[in-house]
Each structure stands twice: as C-alpha cells, then as structure tokens.
Amino acid sequence: MKRIFLVILIIVAFFTQSGFLYSATTVSTPVKKIKILIVPGHDDETWGAQYGNIKEADMNLNLSTRIYNSLKKDKRFEVHITRKTGGYTKEFEDYFKNNTDAIGAFKENAKALMKEKIDAGIFIEKENPPHNNASEDTAIKLYGLNKWANENKMDAVIHVHFNDYPRANKWKSGIHKGFVIYMPEEQMANSKESVNLAKKIFTQLHKKYVTSTYEEEKGGLTPDQSLIALGSNGTLLPSVRSVLIEYGYIYRFKNRNIRHSHYTSMANLTVIGIKNYFFSGR
Ligand SMILES: [Zn+2]
Fold first, then answer.
1. What is the pLDDT of residues 56-83, one digit of tens each?
2. Ligand 1: distance of its center to the CA of 134 in Å?
3. Which domains does the chain have, with CATH numbers?
4. Which of 5, 77, 84, 163 shows its CA 20 to 30 Å from the CA of 42?
C-alpha cells in the first residue's frame, strides 16, 4: 500500500512539475526591458563649452551615440537618444513643438509645489556648485525631457557632457582635469537609486580617469539640487534615475585621435557601469 502511494505521489509530482514547466514556456510573460534615455548635452543652437573649434555639443553627441549603439546591442534594454547629427530626433523635435504649453505648465506647477515645500520647511535648499543658468528655451527643453521621461516610464536618463569652469580666457587651456558625476541631492524624489547608479558608473570611469580637481567637484560624485537634468523641483518620478556625467575638461581633448580614443573607452566604461547597476545586484 505504501508503495502504491509513493508511485502515485511520484506520478502526480511529475505531471504537476511538467505542467508547470509547460505553462512556464507557453504563457511566459515578456521580460520587461530596461528603458534608458541618453541625452547628449546642449544642442546645435546652444552648444555649451567651446575650445578653439571644438564644440561641447558635438563631443557630447559623439560619445552619446557610442553609448546608445552599445546599449542597443543588448536586447535587455530599450534605448532612446534625443539628438542625432543635424539636430533633435523627430520624436523629440515633435514633442517639444507640440507640448510647449504643457511643458511650461509642468515647469511652473513643479516650481510652485517646491516653493510650498521650501516655505513649509519640508525641503531644505542647499548650495550647489556653480552652473551656467539655462536660458528659457533650454529650460523648457530640459523640463520637457523630464516630462517625457516620466510619461514614457524611463528607468534611467544619462546626461552626457564635457566640462569647463568659470575662468578669464576661454581660448587658453585651463588648469583643471578629471570627471565628475552629478546626481540628485538626497532630498530629491529620485535620489536613492540615482546615487546607486552613479556609483556603479563612477567605479568604472575611475579605473581609467582621475576625478575632477575643481574644488566644487572634488571626489567625483557631486549631489546637486539645481540641475533640471537631475529632476530639480521634483520633476522626475522616484523611478526615473538620472545622472549627469561631465567626462572631462574640454581643453584636454584638442587632439582628434586622442579625443576619439577617449570616446571609445568612456562609452565602454559607462555601459559596463549601467549594466552592473541593473544586472549585478544593487
Ligand atoms: Zn555641458
């Protein structure tokens, strides 16, 4: 009798198991792709830093395109980029054009809510490293990107930049060097996971590059409340991680061949950092 029970048990177990296996293979839910938006900083109208005939916006685009192409090869990601050679991609050009008023309202509403929080003492304003003030047009684009990233459920936004610092003669080479990753300050909604992502990218970049020697960027991981790109005024959802990477000081990349070999290694290291964050435990 015991033996029969055992046989029945084994048979039941076998069918149940194979039943599970069957359902697992046929009714498998599609694996959710990780959505990344790559933002080559600035654009062809306002190109950020310049050294000689090298424009930052072009450098940002070159490096961003390499990051984009590399991530795109990995089917676990759904990757988006805001610009290509010649301007914004159609998706973003249309989004800015068709949503100007909505983006303006999104921005004003966010600012009003933040003011209430500051007035109520819920959000404490801190001093941030110096940045160039964004023009109204640039601000609308940056807030627009945040609105788009929220609506399209991005998991991460990577802003790609090259650096400069306030100095008298922009036509001469400066003294500073090194990279820095700006990340949302700890009171910001998307801070926690953005910081973890920033650290993973930092670990990789630091294998080859020194961190910024500029006082306000010492250490290479800098929290900031004021950068729209990071979700200032609460404009990025907690699930939208955002980091802004200043890969180096522009005047140190004058030589074309050296510059292009750096793009390759910077892109590779960034992609490894992103993959480590999403796939090798947090
Ligand atoms: Zn920049």
1. 999 999 999 999 999 999 999 999 999 9
2. 11
3. 37-127+143-165+173-242+249-279 (3.40.630.40)
4. 77
